[in-house]
């Protein structure tokens, strides 16, 4: 009888030791189902992590007003939760600190992060909201139309081993000769591009659009080629465990995608709401079914998202559309029916 008792005690002590070791090492336990969503509702405020300072994604102007793709994502979730896009606090995080901010409880959701979270059990990728990719920027005066025309030239990049591997593989596959050179920073790369010592500058397309927007007459001087050398899915990230909150975040993005697919925009919303007989649109806007109730929201949650920020295409064009400083062709961010990668399941 004594031996089994000691075995049981050893198991209990071992589990306790593991638990306290994890706590001391900074690991967090998954959130209980619905816990985060309930707390957000109780607080009446959504804390949204954004990567401030990246033009097109999240920028605060001199008056303290925020703008950017990430900002509209945060505002859309606020509209779904509270009926207004304004019950959100934007918390500035960096590329390396956003996940820690989630684990520390300083934010409820990280607006955009790459999906490379393999092996992470503490956080969950809530689906793709943007597809970034490695791209190439050239001088407009050189009149290149695609990357194949760079044969014999030089490509500059900064601090990204993946980028080097991608462009070398591209050159090999297409039997091209390219001189691939590393620069100290993307800003230095732009300088060398301007001076002609680089034929093209390679970086993530978001980074290229951002650095071009900071250059005087950047849009007139530089062009981002349509070639995509890689695809990097980006989307919101939440703590693991609270499926209710993850579903609200995920379906908030889906609502904007379905709205664009069904041609429901912030301008057409009122008229379509009063006249449409399309069951898919009626379910989206809350006039049929109880999908909002299943998410823990009211029936008009998606209606309010479109009313507040528009459909996905409107949000994209607001920050990356024609004439914007950070203009980027939709490419993989187009809807699947237009040859892109963005799609959403039907509202059932």
Automatic annotation (TrEMBL):
Signal peptide: none annotated. Pfam families: SBP_bac_3. InterPro entries: Bact_solute-bind_prot3, Solute-binding_3/MltF_N. Transmembrane segments: none annotated. Residues 45-267 form the Solute-binding protein family 3/N-terminal domain. Belongs to the bacterial solute-binding protein 3 family. This is Transporter substrate-binding domain-containing protein. The lineage of its organism: Bacteria, Pseudomonadati, Pseudomonadota, Alphaproteobacteria, Rhodospirillales.
């Amino acid at each position: 009888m004594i031996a089994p008792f000691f075995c049981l005690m050893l198991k209990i002590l071992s589990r306790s030791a593991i638990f306290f070791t994890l706590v001391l090492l900074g690991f967090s336990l998954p959130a209980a189902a619905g816990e985060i969503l309930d707390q957000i509702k109780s607080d009446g405020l959504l804390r949204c992590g954004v990567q401030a300072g990246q033009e097109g994604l999240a920028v605060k102007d001199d008056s303290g007003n925020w703008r950017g793709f990430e900002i509209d994502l945060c505002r859309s979730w606020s509209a779904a939760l509270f009926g207004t896009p304004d019950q959100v606090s934007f918390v500035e995080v960096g590329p390396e600190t956003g996940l820690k901010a989630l684990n520390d409880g300083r934010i409820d959701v990280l607006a955009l992060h790459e999906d490379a979270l393999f092996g992470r059990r503490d956080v969950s990728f809530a689906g793709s909201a943007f597809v970034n990719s490695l791209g190439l920027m050239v001088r407009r005066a050189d009149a290149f139309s695609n990357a194949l025309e760079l044969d014999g030239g030089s490509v500059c990049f900064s601090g990204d081993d993946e980028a080097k591997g991608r462009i070398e593989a591209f050159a090999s596959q297409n039997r091209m000769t390219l001189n691939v050179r590393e620069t100290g920073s993307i800003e230095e790369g732009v300088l060398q591009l301007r001076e002609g010592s680089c034929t093209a500058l390679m970086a993530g397309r978001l980074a290229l659009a951002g650095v071009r927007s900071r250059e005087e007459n950047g849009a007139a001087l530089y062009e981002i080629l349509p070639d995509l050398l890689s695809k990097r899915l980006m989307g919101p990230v939440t703590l693991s465990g609270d499926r209710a909150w993850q579903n609200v975040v995920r379906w908030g993005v889906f609502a904007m995608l379905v709205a664009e697919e069904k041609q429901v925009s912030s301008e057409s919303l009122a008229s379509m709401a009063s006249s449409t007989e399309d069951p898919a649109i009626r379910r989206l806007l809350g006039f049929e079914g109880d999908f909002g109730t299943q998410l823990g929201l009211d029936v008009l949650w998606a209606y309010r998202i479109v009313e507040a920020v528009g459909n996905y295409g409107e949000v994209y064009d607001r920050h990356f559309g024609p004439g914007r400083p950070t203009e980027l062709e939709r490419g993989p961010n187009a809807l699947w029916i237009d040859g892109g990668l963005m799609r959403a399941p039907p509202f059932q």
